[in-house]
Amino acid sequence: MRAETTLQDIIGLEHTKLGFFQELRLSIEALRQAHAESEQRRREISTILDGITDVMMVLSDTLRIIAVNHVFHETTGVSAPEGVCCHRIFRNRDTPCPDCPALRALNTGAVCRETAIFRLNGDNRQFEIVASPLTAYDASAPRVLVFKRDVTAEKELQAKYLQAEKMATVGMLAAGVAHEINNPLTSISGFTEGLRRTLRRCEERLPAEIYAGVAEDLDTIRDECKRCQDIVRALLTFSRPQFSCVSVLPLSSLVRDVLKISHSLLHRPENRNTRLELDLAPGDGPATLGDEGHLKQVLLNLLANALDATAAGNGMEHAPGYTPTVVIRTWAEGDGVYLSVSDNGCGMDAENVGKLFEPFFTTKKAGRGIGVGLSTCYSIVRAHGGEISVRSDPGQGSCFTVRLPALTEGNHV
Amino acid sequence: MPITKYALPDIIFGPGTFARMPLCARQLGAQRVLLVSDPGVERAGWVEQATDLLRADGLEWVYYNECVSNPRDTAVARGAEVYREERADVIVALGGGSPIDTAKGIAALVGNGGRIQDYEGANKLRKPLPPLLCLPTTAGSGSDISQFCIITDRKRRMKMSIISRTLTPNISIVDPLLTHTCDARLLLASAIDALAHAVESYLSVLSSPFTEGQALESVDRIMRFLPAAVQDKKPEALERLSIASTQAGMSFSNAGLGVGHSLAHTLGGIYDVGHGAVHSALLPVVMEYNMRDCLEKMAGIGRCIMGGELSNAEDTARGGIEYLRNFFTRLGAPVRLSRVLPDDTGLPAVSVGALQDVCTLTNPRTPHAGELLALCREAW
To answer: Which of B134, B165, B172, B257 would best serve as a mutation to test chain A binding (most A beta carbons within 10 A)?
Structure first.
């Protein structure tokens, strides 16, 4: 150590008597200690806050954003929201939204809850909002803590679950009713045949016009009975669809086959102006495994609904320049194959969309449908391990999408 | 001319300035003073006077007196502990070189932590020290003025030189009246230490016009007033010795010393002999050794010692050395190491240790260990 010392070290040009401030030194030590402690606390709290998966905001009494968490940035895509009003960011409004829970919380001093839908990044997202007044702050500058939990996926799942449950119940009821009705129908049909045979034996004894009239009535009874039995059979099919024949089904060729047999449908007078567009996966398209007849029935049903929705006079008059259009698409995505039928027709409101797959529900005028089409489609698609979903806006049109499992090595028979 | 640096504490000089101690401490921010002294100073009554002054001024104090001649690392560490535990602020050192160096060591540890060994060498202290106020009770150590702090490492049996600009005390109150309680032996040893400071710093390779004047004046005053001071403690003579000691401190703090002090430090470490007692034997021998490399300056000192000059520079230089030996003998100071040390078995170790001492660096002639051993033998 001493060996390193030089004459320059002894002269010590760059060294001088250093000032010493006892109080300052002690308070700096105390401050450093306190700083280390508060930094540690800050890190702990920050770790907890970062663990929160809801959007979190602290708002001033004028609903200006004071602080947000990282989920806010990720959800809204806004990087520096401080100072901007909450309603500007979420609703692009100049004034607070009606029923704002943050304002209610500020006014009442109580925790307020609300459910709301915000349009974020082009998607409608449903949020559960909890607003808690922050009483620890200065009373002259009240603040409110707002949590927004994205419950879109939850709600979708909940809706699907409710729907499935309802469908299962309705299916059981329908099967029961169908069974109960089937017996009297068989009796009616049988006795009608009996009457018909009796009538034939009495043909010579009856005047010709009476015989003909009764025979026609009996035929009508028998035919109507047959129609009832068909409906009942459809109901039974709905409640427990049975596969008659499972084969490899390429979706694009399935669509082309269906179009061949729906000529009469497409050329009805009310559909003459409707343009049909095809956006099909090339070649035969992505394949799934299923019952050809049943899946064709699904497509036919969706197509018929789309044509009905775009037909003039069905609750809407065609505006000038409006071209009724139906688009059929097929594509593959992930482990699924997709078939969609969309139209730019009358569309449906949310209430109707919710009931869409229930048996006997129809928006069509009396006589145009019995309301088992979509519910049958639903159970067929479910039986194939797929899903059917619908997006619809009143006046904008609807889009029905069927997702089926893609054909893979594993499920190939 | 090389760049030089000259730094000093505030120096308050004059009979009765002791009474200004509390005021000066307050100026440095005192509320609770660490008073460092030793039993000798206590016996002289100065510690009581100091605490009376502090009490009268309403200042609190903590007293620390574990100081011995050749102050030790352990005493320094213990003092720093007391300072921290008692939450003292300004350190007031009252006494000779030992209490003042102990106080400096305490200040170094309080401000920088660690062990005093960590700061051996030049300017190793990087953090500020608590304010230091010194009141020398001897006219000799110059520690109240200097940036030097010499502490004995008990384990290694050697003295460490801690040199740092920040070790310079803030204020030195030099009250000549405080030296009145010294006995003749202490007055003599202290003054000869001061004389060695003046001579060695004058010859140092770092001496400058700012230090050389102080050094020569110091030599002149000691030669003229030491006999009277030792014989009948004439106040006027004691005052001049205080001035001379302060001047020697001004000089050596900035210019450094030489091999005389290297040897004295090492002897103190190995034999635990009083620092002042070895200089009367070492100084003439060291001056003869250095003469080859700084004849003109040695002649200057010779003139100053004798109050006149001989036919040429070498004669004047030699004349001065001879005059000095006789001067020491006349006053009863030992001119032979054999009179001070119990045996000469430690001398080889002394010469090796002295070669490592920081003071060797500024000596005008660069020695090797054999030469230093020869010096010791010559002075034996």
So the answer is: B165
* pLDDT per residue as tens digits for the range A232-256: 776 666 555 455 678 888 999 888 8
Asked if B89 and A10 come within 8 Å (Cβ–Cβ), the reply is no
Q: Of B123, B128, B168, which is closest to A19 when you measure between CB atoms? A: B128
Last residue of a domain, one of A239, A259, A293: A239
Please report whether residue A283 resides in a domain: yes
The CATH architecture assigned to B183-379 reads: Up-down Bundle (1.20)
A279 domain-assigned: yes
Do the Cβ atoms of A56 and A145 come closer than 8 Å?
Answer: yes
Does residue A62 form part of some domain? yes
Q: Say whether pTM exceeds 0.80.
A: no
Q: Would an 8 Å CB–CB cutoff place B256 in contact with chain A?
A: yes
Q: Is B72 helix (H, G, I), strand (E, B) or coil?
A: strand
Q: Tens digit of pLDDT for each residue in A328-380?
A: 999 999 889 999 999 988 888 877 777 777 665 666 654 454 455 777 788 88
Both tokens assigned to B248 = 């020697």
- A281 and A395, same structural domain? yes
Q: Do A7 and B7 lie within an 8 Å CB cutoff?
A: no
How is the beta sheet containing B171-174 ordered, strand by strand?
B10-13, B171-174, B132-136, B91-95, B32-36, B60-64
According to CATH, the topology of domain B10-178 is Rossmann fold (3.40.50)
Binary contact (B205, A11; C-beta < 8 A): no
Same domain assignment for residues A259 and A223:
no
Bridge partners of residue B61, in order along the sequence: B33
The predicted-structure confidence for A49-83, as pLDDT tens digits, reads as follows 888 889 999 999 889 999 898 889 888 888 888 99
CATH assignment of the domain containing A348:
3.30.565.10
Residues 330-369, chain B, touching A (beta carbon < 8 A): 356-358, 361-362
Question: Residues of chain B whose pLDDT is less than 70?
Answer: 1
Q: What is the nearest CA distance from B306 to chain A, expressed in angstroms?
A: 32
B262: left (phi over 0), alpha (psi -120 to 50) or beta: alpha
